[in-house]
Design goal:
This protein is an alpha/beta fold. It folds into three domains: about 1-190, 3-Layer(aba) Sandwich (Rossmann fold); about 190-280 and about 475-503; about 290-465, no CATH class. It has 13 helices and 22 strands. The strands form five sheets. An eight-stranded mixed β-sheet has the order 14-15-18-19-13-20-12-21. A hairpin with a 2-residue loop joins strand 3 (about 55-60) and strand 4. It is globular, with a radius of gyration of 23 Å.
């Protein structure tokens, strides 16, 4: 008799510090797949899961895949209650329709939230567990920026985190999860899981997992533990620091084959490794003006200005003009490229047409709490529809959307004005608008990590900016409402710290 395995999830990284509310339409703009549409995915963690399941046989019979719902979206503010209720009900109705199932695979992020459900994934897993019963395996995949909660750990049989940042192993992680489910159904493994967390809440700037770096060392240590007998999987988590939920922190999660004490002990070791490198995870920061002046003293280019605080991939609106103001105020007369999300300004450029002179207020229109608009006058250099294709990551090969877009030339500065916030895996947006950063003196990149894939070998200098925004480069001064004290970096030292253990 063949097994039936259900596959689906709600996948998004949410931001409590800012960003725009998430509605169903935003998933529709990105990826909202129902039923058999889910099986069309050939990449990302879903693609990896399907690849393993489609190739699996049991006593000569193929595994039956029950595709449910897969909703993914660029990071934003929390889902509205209406949005979450709609997607959750659709998911659960589809699951009810295919019961009984032998297992459930959940390609999750781990940092989703709704207005009334800070722990969206925990709530969803609990609802799934209620439907399928205590004995049915539930295995999920998580981003290494997941906020892993007690409800998630208790509701799932196993959770497997990504091993790379920048994230290049979505597919492989999906494969690992599906293979584990098959091992469980065959009776060869009985997962036990433990999570150890420490109150470290830092940005992702030094969260790379390859080469030198503090978190790279933590990840290598965590993965070395998989060589031990009966250790199925180890994960190290940074946590998405722009949530505002009690119990936030990073650490280690270990899945063993029926050995809970070992899972607890090894997860504690990972968590303490992470705690001990906490100071190295805080980046050196510059004011935008100081960074521009330092960049002008550097021979050649590009000098890459990392404006982490306005990262669309972390839930920001992308509408900050802090770096643009600095470039203008210092008087940069060499090519500089700056992205800004402003639908009204983009529309004005489209209405005026290529070659036209335009004047308008730019920036801080979508999430205005972080700054004031800037009056700019320039020439419309180029227009576009905002369609692009992701060339890596979780959405590799899939269409991206930044809405009607324009390149506005203000002196030596070229501003990419988009209508919609969009995730930047590499340089898709600049490429689409034919903006060549190779000849630029300055390039503004609004992400804490993915810029490495484009600029690491090209940049003359990389500088991190300290600017206002909902995705700041340090959480030292963030006024959280729900995150408990103490936590690093607000509290540099916490005497007699012991990791919190969840299992």
């Amino acid at each position: 008799m063949s097994h039936t395995i259900a596959v689906g999830a709600i996948f998004i990284e949410c931001n409590h510090l800012g960003g725009l509310p998430t509605e169903v339409e935003h998933f529709e703009q990105c990826e909202l797949l129902r039923g058999e549409q889910v099986t069309e995915l050939r990449n990302g963690n879903v693609g990896g899961m399907l690849d393993v399941l489609e190739g699996a046989t049991e006593n000569g019979s193929k595994v039956n895949i029950a595709p449910l719902l897969y909703a993914s979206c660029c990071a934003r503010g929390p889902l509205t209650d209406r949005c979450y209720a709609t997607l959750k009900q659709d998911f659960l109705d589809r699951l009810k329709a295919v019961l009984p199932v032998d297992a459930v695979l959940l390609p999750l992020h781990g940092s989703a939230a709704a207005e009334s459900a800070g722990d969206l994934e925990g709530d969803l897993i609990t609802s799934i567990r209620t439907l399928v019963g205590p004995q049915t395996p539930i295995v999920g995949t998580l981003d290494l920026h997941a906020h892993v909660t007690e409800e998630m750990v208790r509701g799932a049989d196993a959770l497997l985190g990504l091993e790379t940042y920048p994230h290049v192993d979505w597919y492989a992680t999906g494969q690992r999860a599906a293979q584990l489910v098959l091992e469980m159904l065959a009776g060869r493994v009985q997962p036990t899981m433990a999570l150890a967390k420490v109150p470290v809440v830092v940005s992702a700037i030094y969260g790379n997992t390859a080469g030198a770096g503090p978190f790279a060392d933590v990840m290598r240590f965590a993965k070395s533990l998989e060589l031990q007998e009966d250790v199925i999987s180890t994960s190290a988590f940074l946590v998405h620091p722009y949530l505002d939920i009690p119990g936030m922190g990073g650490g280690g999660l270990v899945v063993t084959n029926d050995d809970l004490p070992a899972a607890v002990e090894l997860s504690k070791k990972i968590a303490m490794q992470y705690w001990n490198c906490r100071n190295e995870l805080e980046p050196p920061l510059h004011t935008p003006e100081d960074a521009v002046r330092e960049g002008l003293s550097v021979d050649g280019g590009p000098v890459v200005l990392i404006e982490t605080a306005d990262c669309c991939g972390g839930g920001a609106a992308g509408d900050s003009v802090a770096s643009l103001k600095a470039l203008l105020s210092v008087g940069v007369d060499q090519l500089a490229l700056v992205p800004v999300v402003d639908p009204a300004a983009a529309a004005a450029c489209h209405q005026a047409g290529v070659g036209s002179q335009v004047t308008f207020d730019l920036g801080h229109q979508l999430d205005p709490q972080w700054g004031t608009p800037l009056s700019v006058s320039g020439t419309v250099l180029r227009l576009g529809d905002g369609h692009f294709t992701f060339n890596g990551g979780a959405w590799d090969g899939r269409p991206g959307e930044m809405g009607p877009s324009a390149v506005l030339e203000v002196g030596a500065i070229q501003i990419l004005i988009a209508s919609l916030p969009s995730y930047d895996w590499t340089d898709e947006q600049f490429q689409t608008m034919q903006m060549d950063y190779r000849g630029a003196k300055f390039v503004v990149a609004k992400n804490p990590m993915n810029y490495r894939q484009v600029y690491t070998d090209l940049a003359a200098k990389i500088l991190f900016l300290n600017t206002p925004g909902p995705t700041p480069p340090t959480l030292r001064f963030t006024e959280f409402q729900h995150l408990q004290r103490p936590y690093f970096p607000a509290d540099p030292s916490i005497p007699d710290l012991q990791p919190a253990i969840l299992h």
